[in-house]
# Entry
Amino acid sequence: MTLALDRTAQELLFLEAHTAHTFSDEPVSDEQIRAVYELVKYAPTAFNQSPLRITLVRSAEARSRLVKHMSEGNRPKTSAAPLTAILSVDLEFHERLPELQPLAPALKDKFFSEAEARETSGTFNATLQAGYFIVGVRAAGLAAGPMSGFDKHGVDKEFFGDGTQKSLLVVNIGRPGEDAYRPRQPRLSYDDAVTTV
Amino acid sequence: MTLALDRTAQELLFLEAHTAHTFSDEPVSDEQIRAVYELVKYAPTAFNQSPLRITLVRSAEARSRLVKHMSEGNRPKTSAAPLTAILSVDLEFHERLPELQPLAPALKDKFFSEAEARETSGTFNATLQAGYFIVGVRAAGLAAGPMSGFDKHGVDKEFFGDGTQKSLLVVNIGRPGEDAYRPRQPRLSYDDAVTTV
# Structure
């Protein structure tokens, strides 16, 4: 009632959406991921830095290279998902800032000449974008299965040998399969999560 | 076309949504923020840990305590916004895990007995939730003005004296005012952001 977003969209993105643990065989196309990207790319990052990079793991060879770095409990579903995406931060994101901030190209050197500043700001903003991406997967009518349980150093070495990208999250993507969802767990109440001062 | 989300919702949340730099005088009610929270609380976090906390800065006294820690360029808009929220991570989020994971209360001690593990996982997951929250503000028909430009240690000491909460992002919230939006800046192309392996 107090939301502008209609009920159908609320359900699609949040109220009825669940993390999927199994997937159907229906493939996920590049066009679907492109549509997700073209939607969520507009969501905000600091200075429009847009540091998130997405690696779509499609080939059987790449999938086996990924699965071996997943924690044991995440291996079967990552082996079986129609598509898996590695979400990462590009720690050299500042090299693109002059294109992303054409009116303020000096921001690159003003704020991001130090690797530590890039790591802090880039990781934070790429993580915001990971949140947008999960919403975007659902906007495509697909289920997401985000996983933090993997060997980050192993994945980084395996897929980003040169060290400028760091993995943040691995996301299985597809239509939900049989028994895809676990029961909804409780959430914190508004009064537990929100304080007014 | 390849999205399940209808065009109106796409525009509301992403395509036509912009970061606002000025706001109208129309107040933002607790009911609106409650509706945002009740929507986005369902979006996923690892182990349902739900570490994000939201501090609504409503009183003139609290606002002045916040504004002094904002970077100079962010002070006028933070002074003028109808409502400002401090988004933070609760580094003691694991104390709530037995409620949030009633079927697996042992997760609390298995994964989160160490402060460093809580800081890494909590910060990452609260940042995902910050992304969901920005989408949720837009779902309420409101404009968000997220800002990283503030003295984090200053805000933490000022608002979270005991050290268990760490600020992540400050978000102005309201209806857009005059000249609220800057021109849309370029985004990375799909081929620049997405790689297939």
